[in-house]
């Protein structure tokens, strides 16, 4: 149960009811971070618009690279909601979610490509406190993905850090977007 109760559909105004219908159609349920942030309608709208814009803009990297970096960030932060939702997004994108159970062994696991390993290591370095990204690491990523790809990777990992920290702070936990125990990947 989150620390702030979500705004229910019965409490919602016309715009929020419409947003809830769209979310239910797209994801099968209203994402709890939206329902909680609905207590501050302007910030909630800004967040939804931002997420949609990022989704449309982030098309440089291969989907698996982008999604694995975001997923790794969620696991490093211990955000069970983000892990749950991220697993669902990967499944909907047709990605292999079974390999998520081995993400802690990404550096040596044959389940991950060289590009994916680079992105996951970068997510780890960006999520560490203090941040531990090196010049060599960014140079290698720019060589592999181009400047645009490096910027996209940086942006989506930073955004996931924001999401995960906000959700964890508000007590928003996994919502059941994935079936089975795929979303129950052990957190560090």
Describe the structure.
The chain has 7 helices and no strands. The chain is globular, with a radius of gyration of 17 Å. Helix content is 61%, strand content 0%. It has 2 domains: 14-57, no CATH class; 63-169, Up-down Bundle (AhpD-like), CATH 1.20.1290. The two termini are 22 Å apart. It is mostly helical and 188 residues long.
Key terms for this structure?
188 residues, mainly alpha, AhpD-like, 7 helices, globular, disordered C terminus
Structural class: mainly alpha
Number of strands: 0
Radius of gyration: 17 Å
Shape: globular
- Which series of helices and strands comes N to C? HHHHHHH
In DSSP terms (H or I, runs of 4 or more residues), the helix count works out at: 7
Low-confidence stretches: 180-188
CATH homologous superfamily identity of the largest domain: AhpD-like
Q: From the 3D coordinates, which CATH architecture of the largest domain would you assign?
A: Up-down Bundle
* CATH level-1 class of the largest domain: Mainly Alpha
**CATH domain fold name of the largest domain:** AhpD-like
**Average pLDDT:** 94
Quick one: biggest sheet?
none
**N-to-C span:** 22 Å
Oligomer description: single chain
Number of individual domains: 2
**Which range best describes the helical content: under 10%, 10-25%, 25-40%, 40-55%, 55-70% or over 70%?**
55-70%
Estimate what percentage of residues fall within beta strands.
under 5%
